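Journal club prep, notes for RB
We'll compare a predicted complex against what the paper describes. Inputs for the zinc ion case:
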Amino acid sequence: MTEADVDGWNRSEDVAHNQSLDRAVLTDGGEDVSGGSTADRGGSNSDASPSDAVLPDDLPASKDKFLVWLTECWQCGERTPVVWPKGGHLDGPIGGVLAEHDTPVERVYSKTMGKRVWGNVCQHCDSYQGNFFVQQEAVKLNPPSAECPECGEAHDWRPDQGMGGAFDQGWITCPEYGGEIPVSDPRQ
Ligand SMILES: [Zn+2]
Ligand SMILES: [Zn+2]
């Protein structure tokens, strides 16, 4: 018996242990989902491409124009699908179109805005998933690119997490410059 043999044996035991943990987690998730209203949508356990399951085929717009993902509901903590138009905003005519079809989008009252808006609601508890938060997630998933004032190339843009975000201020990271550069929202 060499030391290497012992190490190898220990490692393989660790791997087997981790795999059984993973399986246990997956099984728990499956049971959660089947208890909810997602059972008839099928495939709700897969994060890969939920857009087909969430957006109906009769939607009068290309599914490519939308981002669809699962978010964690701030109210009940369950994972629920949300929809956001790529490079746009949900609270406009497109929100009305989505709400006419079988999507998570409904007319809701936004306390932040003090008015009714088009927004995503949780399929488990019906809570409004705030447009500001959902838009932040959409930008993370599909960042717009902005022209770099240092090198002239396009880099991924992200909104400022503080006050600047409210004024369309954000940042890009330039590898050539070696740091962050403030750039205003390229979509404005
Ligand atoms: Zn919820
Ligand atoms: Zn650059």
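Talking point for the session: Residues 4-48 have pLDDT under 50 and may be disordered.
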